[in-house]
């Protein structure tokens, strides 16, 4: 199977996913193998919702929309154009996936297969339903993928390299367990936004998407703000109001109530608007329904701080602050070349 065959298979998968980006899926009879898979995937989406209360229909649809856009021929070709795939020696790469947001491990899965390697997937128990079904679709539209994709719930065996994502605690275990294998080990990271007080209403409304999408559970979700002294939070509170229906969702509301009670009993100073709490805190990882903030004195000092603590930060949302910044509202719309932790997964796979 050559590179173009692999690309074509994922383009077909993107076309398949495009049917499921709306509240009511719209069947496209031109999609290959659709009669075999369309109704089945609707069922898998339902199972994913039922098995994980954080996987709302809207969040699953948002994920599928993003991947249907990403898996276009021009996007894939542009992404892969700088790499040389001519000398790949097929290996088996184990991918240990997180389960915080739907299909969070799909990019690693894609990278392994598009590079010409075999993938051995160990999924999180929180996200078991979507990816195996999509893998079956790939095997039907490109039969040469058969035998190259395996899933396991047992101890990982028979692999040559590993890509593992988890918490700081599990990362220490991964680093010890996989010390003799080529590996990418990912730890906890969070995203931040740098505000000046001069942001437009549109920018702040877009920022609210970075905060609330996936309930804030993703490493690309903004969990902390850096703001200047005497920053006025009222424009921000007004701008995020479009997300206020989120408080009607049980799991989010339970977390909001719990964290608010903890803060009140601890007599912490905070601002809140009925569905979001904003608290001054040095940490990067804020609890659900909470946004941390920290004051900065100068942009140069802040740049130094962010550089020194870059191993804790996934994305920086800002305008005209850093060369690597993400525009407001775009953290959960990464391009194929936006690698987690800024580690080039394809480059790693081409060197093993």
Automatic annotation (TrEMBL):
Keyword terms: NADP
Alphabetical list of InterPro entries matching this protein: Ald_DH/histidinol_DH, CoA_reduct_LuxC
Lineage: superkingdom: Bacteria
GO BP term, example: bioluminescence
GO terms, molecular function: acyl-CoA dehydrogenase activity
Cited Pfam families: LuxC (PF05893)
Name assigned to this protein: Acyl-CoA reductase
Organism placement in taxonomy: Bacteria, Pseudomonadati, Bacteroidota, Flavobacteriia, Flavobacteriales
